[in-house]
Amino acid sequence: MELENEEREKDIPFSQDFGKTAPAKGSRSRAPSKEERLAMKEIKMREKLEKNATREKLRQMKPGECIKSMKVIIDSNIVAYRYLYQSIENALQEFGADLTVEQQPIRNSITWSRSGSAFTDREDSENDAVIIWSSEKFSSVVCNDKLSYAIQTIKERLPNKRVTLLIYSGSDIGMESEDLVPSLDSVNAYGARRKKATTLNKKRLEMELGRLQFEHDCSYRLIEARGEVGKVIAQFTKAISEIPFRKERERQEQELAWLAAADSRGCVRVNKSSHGLAQLWTQQLLQFNNCNLDAANEITKRYPTPQALVKAYERCATEQEASTLLKEIPIVRKCIGDLAARRKLGPELSRKLHLLFTCKDPNVQLYNE
């Protein structure tokens, strides 16, 4: 017997650690190979980089931060106009935007690009372009009947861009007549160029600016002072930088129900003691187009709560009686002396209120019945 017990003790595996049982046969998990460990490490590193990139992208989209990722690219010809260039440079430095000088396809033009996150060097070009024209050049283009040609040339050289003309009345920018192509009626029979009047009256100016918007889909800004040019460019930069943030906010608001949109304009505050419910009931009645404050007060005087109105509808014998329950309510418009106007609520508003509180079909429209 003792020998049998000793043999059994030898057969039973015993863990060296006290209190731990030996793993069952075949239950030990296989250690991952070196390639598997490297693959798992690479997946975790990629997920971490994606999270950091998403976090950085959301941070850059916030107002105040998004403008730091903007690069303002101005044409090298603008640098020649020292005071104008300094105005733009000083305005952009206040916002923290990057300023780059490059030769652009159109003289005196300004474009924008947005740098990616800190994890990528990619830059995305924005769809806006601003071109600075002197008022003399604009007048010359219009008087030579070359406005359509000039705008068409700009859009061909800057495809897929929303073009805005800054018409500057200062003397910092010259005529740049080399950009203009003379029309046939500006050349006489001897081949000599005939000068045309370059002064626009107010009526002609307004008409041409209207053509600029409606016929050529081109915006404009009239600038008088030199310092305003820098402010306008800074405003454009700020507005363009916030486009992704506004689009994301609109997308989130569209996904939410209108009750969760956090639009607190014109709301009525109701406290824990139910103070404000009467005002809320009046505000609900005022949502109808033909229900003014006097009519709402007369309804709430007879039916202090929506539930009281619903119970009154339930007590009616027929549907027609319920639909015309409120039409005879008198409405007195308070005025001084004998000028008080008296009228009745009317069947139309009575029908709409009855339909609103009793109809069970969610597709019924109140105003298209």
UniProtKB/TrEMBL annotation:
GO molecular function, one term: crossover junction DNA endonuclease activity
Domain of life: Eukaryota
UniProt-annotated stretches for the region Disordered: 1-37
Signal peptide: none
InterPro entries registered for this protein in UniProt: EME1/EME2_C, Mms4/EME1/EME2
Subcellular location: Nucleus
GO cellular component: Holliday junction resolvase complex; nucleus
A Pfam family assignment: EME1-MUS81_C
Record keywords, A-Z: DNA damage, DNA recombination, DNA repair, Endonuclease, Hydrolase, Magnesium, Meiosis, Metal-binding, Nuclease, Nucleus
Main localization of the protein described in the UniProt heading: nucleus
GO biological process assignments: double-strand break repair; mitotic intra-S DNA damage checkpoint signaling; replication fork processing; resolution of meiotic recombination intermediates
Cofactor(s) needed by this chain: Mg(2+)
Protein name, UniProt field: ERCC4 domain-containing protein
